[in-house]
Amino acid sequence: MKFLTIAAALAASVFAVPFAGRAADLTVGLAASTTSMDPQFYVVGPNSAMARNIFDGLVNQDAKQQIQPALATSWKTIDDTTWEFKLRPDVKFHDGSDFTAEDVVASIKRVPLASKNSPSSFAAYVKAITEITAVDPLTVRIKTDGPTPLLLNNLSRIAILPAEMEKTTTEEMNSGKGVIGTGPFKFVSWTPDDNIVVARNDDYWGEKAAWDKVTFRVFKNASARVAAMLSGDVDMIESIPTADTRKLQASDKLKVVNVAGNRIMYLHMDQGREESPFTKGPDGKNPLLKPEVRRALSLSINREALVDRIMDGQGVPAGQVVPEGYFGYDPAIKVDPYDPNKAKQLLADAGYPDGFSLTFHASNDRYPNDSKVAQAIGQFFSRIGIKTEVVTLPGSVYFTRASNLEFSFIMGGAAVETGEASGVLGPILETYGEKAGQGNRGRYSNPEFDKALNEARGTLDDAKREELLKKATEIAMTDLGVIPVFYLANTWAVNKDLSYEGRSDGYTLPYYVKQN
Fold it and tell me: What is the pLDDT of residue 331?
């Protein structure tokens, strides 16, 4: 779980005086409901975002998912498998109790309990931990089963609760018992599928929030959410439907915030079979095995047009798997330009002057405008001579069939949950195996890529690890193991008197909503 970045480095954030003549209350329209008040139960966006308002981690992630101090002010590696954390002094939980090392130990030990019956548990984030010890009230030592460079990223997802809550069940927390953190807001109430209310924590260790009370209202219907914003029923909404972006931007009472998200939309091609079920050249063989063909496909795509016309501006063209500002992003790798003439030449050089046949499969209900995006990409391919048929399917059918390698050319999305490039490079590009490349539905494989990625995973030195990740990215993008298309944007609308920076993880965090 990625928790609210409220480290000392942000203590300089200054909030203006609340609106004159009214209480400093904020009403936020959410797109999805929190399903549990247990911050360690379910790894899913709405739950993780809500938890950040109430709980801290040892470390937190900033607006671009980079690690910041939180309940730990500093850390060091004693050896390749031992980390030591110095904790922030004089921190109080919402119930007034003191925060100490014992709370960290108990919170990490609670994860298996919270994982019971979880649709997607937090167990993976603590599985490398073999021992955790409270050295003294403000020092914690963690041992892992091997070098674990992503330990900080993993710990940023684990909420810290009072030690006495170690045995508190998810069911009890859903009833309101034990929803106690150290975050900027205190839990007040939760009505599932309706609303959540939190109040400012006046004893918060960082800069105090600007809001006395925040009410989160759930509007699963996008039109109702937009209507509530336009009518003034709410001060802020998240997840603007692409079709309503222009309407909200045109209002002189509102502002629209649009930032590159952490999810890359990409194209996966069959690179594992000489003969593929849904593509063939004149010789009956799979043209997608040739790098010139893959580059031609990439050059045929007008990414700017996709973002502007299909996504109504809610996206950023992509040339690699993580956006700028992320650990492992390589500024030397540029987005392929729209160049259909060069694409046709590359096809001819590869032996396909008259193109080839291709059926492109995609989902039609998983990502914003996924069917429309697929149809547009299919048209781009047709313009360079590739005889393209586009078939879209419900996600419940599509992803199972794609994982079974029933298709030749597909579209997918992958989010950078860890905050660094390995979080996407591994799942979609590493050579497929029992414990590797589980999302590699194109069966791309390059031993040099695998070597660089695995070296990065075992390298604790940040500078060296980042260079290895850049090397892995360069290899994969030169090969075009996948074709990056665009990063989905995260969007919010706020009253003109408010400002919000926006976050690449899409979380709506009132702590960072400022009054102008």
Answer: 96
Q: Which two tokens stand for residue 171?
A: 């069911």
Would you say residue 5 has pLDDT above 70?
no
d(CA 329, CA 272): 27
Apex 89 CA angle, 85 and 94, nearest 5: 110
Helix/strand/coil for 276:
strand
Segment 447-463 shows an average pLDDT of 94
Tell me the whole-structure pTM to 2 decimals: 0.81
pLDDT band at 11 (very low <50, low <70, confident <90, very high): very low
Backbone angles phi, psi at 348, to 5 degrees: -65, -40
C-alpha span between 52 and 60 (Å, rounded)? 9
For 389-393, the CB contacts below 8 A with 24+ separation are: 389/358, 389/359, 389/360, 390/359, 390/360, 390/362, 391/359, 391/360, 391/361, 391/362, 392/361, 392/362, 392/363, 392/364, 393/361, 393/362, 393/363, 393/364
Under 8 Å CB-to-CB from 288, ≥6 apart: which residues?
A: 269, 270, 271, 276, 279, 294, 408, 409
Residue 96 Cα to chain centre, angstroms: 33
